[in-house]
Design goal:
CATH class: Alpha Beta
Shape: globular
CATH superfamily: Glutaredoxin
Number of domains: 1
Order of helices and strands: HEEEHEHEEEH
Length: about 180
């Protein structure tokens, strides 16, 4: 009976933790066309190292998508924090994946950008912004992050680099990885 009660309590905590994550309201001015709780739009692209990456291949993992570009000053400010506070902490976990998605820039520029920051997490190419515009409105700014749960659903989204929102995102990732 005690075991049953414990399992029931743990299930309730897990459900309420995920529900808490899903309830965050995303301001309309963030420019997203996707919503919290929605299945993340799938994509296939190539990494700066030449590896084919398909989002749906990462189902069962917690995934962070970081939309970026070399010309984006806010991206350059945020990326070292992502590298230090998220990537270095979770990169060896088999159930976590992080991808920077570079908006419509050639391979050489993306590779140079990764070296300049520097970041060691994988950067993906997004020719013509097809991936970006499946998540955000045309003309929307590029600095944004999307957190996807193990079922492939969007659970958290950010816009620009705001320390409080960034810290909340780190907490969401930590909770999803427990």
């Amino acid at each position: 009976m005690k075991l049953f009660t414990f399992i029931l309590l743990m299930s309730t905590l897990t459900i309420s933790t995920q529900a808490q994550v899903v309830q965050k309201e995303i301001p309309a001015d963030y420019g997203y066309i996707v919503k919290i709780g929605q299945q993340a739009p799938d994509f296939t692209t190539v990494s700066a190292e030449g590896r084919t990456v398909r989002l749906s291949d990462f189902k069962g993992k917690v995934v962070m998508l970081q939309f970026t570009a070399s010309w984006c000053g806010v991206c350059r400010k945020e990326m070292p924090h992502i590298e230090k506070d998220i990537w270095q902490k979770h990169k060896n976990k088999e159930d976590f994946a992080l991808f920077g998605i570079d908006l419509d820039e050639p391979l050489e520029k993306v590779q140079k950008f990764a070296e300049q920051i520097p970041v060691s997490y994988p950067l993906l190419l997004d020719p013509e912004g097809k991936i970006f515009y499946s998540y955000a409105e045309k003309g929307a700014g590029v600095t944004r992050n999307v957190i996807i749960d193990r079922e492939g659903k969007i659970v958290y989204m950010t816009r620009l680099y705001k320390e409080e929102e960034f810290n909340e995102m780190k907490t969401v990732i930590d909770k999803l990885l427990k």
